[in-house]
Design a protein that fits this description.
With 132 residues, the chain is an alpha+beta fold. The chain is built from 3 helices and 5 strands. The chain is globular, with a radius of gyration of 14 Å.
């Protein structure tokens, strides 16, 4: 368990106290689907500040999860994984918030360039995935 990897999905638009439970459940389901490895990825806890969904990836499954995330970043993810990323990205885009500051080891959404109507150009996503 000490060799397990933690991954955090930051959602800056809400705090754990303000995010509607149904919306939190949607983000958690999307996050689980994004990471894959159904039996090797676990919910660990919520961190305060923004809503930070902390997951724990079992040591044995960490290389597979890392490969999935790298495929997303490189634009080589299979279609079904790209659809999960798009779904998360669309949820975050619907929050209509401003861009967050970059953080070390963070992978901001969207995973790749997304064209938005000009009216939404200033409404960048408020979510990242952090590994440690």
């Amino acid at each position: 368990m000490t060799d397990d990897k933690k991954l955090i999905f930051h959602i800056d638009a809400y705090s754990p106290e303000t995010i509607p439970m149904a919306k939190l459940a949607e983000y958690m389901a999307d996050f689980a689907a994004l990471l894959g490895k159904e039996n090797g990825v676990h919910f660990d806890h919520l961190e305060s500040g923004s809503t930070n969904i902390v997951s724990r990836v079992e040591y044995e499954d960490e290389p597979k999860v890392t490969t999935r995330l790298n495929d997303i970043r490189q634009g080589t993810a299979p279609k079904e994984l790209a659809q999960i990323v798009a779904q998360i990205d669309n949820r975050l885009a619907s929050l209509r918030r401003v861009k967050m500051e970059p953080r070390p080891n963070c992978w901001p959404f969207p995973a790749g360039p997304v064209q938005r109507p000009r009216a939404m150009a200033h409404s960048l996503r408020k979510g990242t995935l952090t590994a440690y």
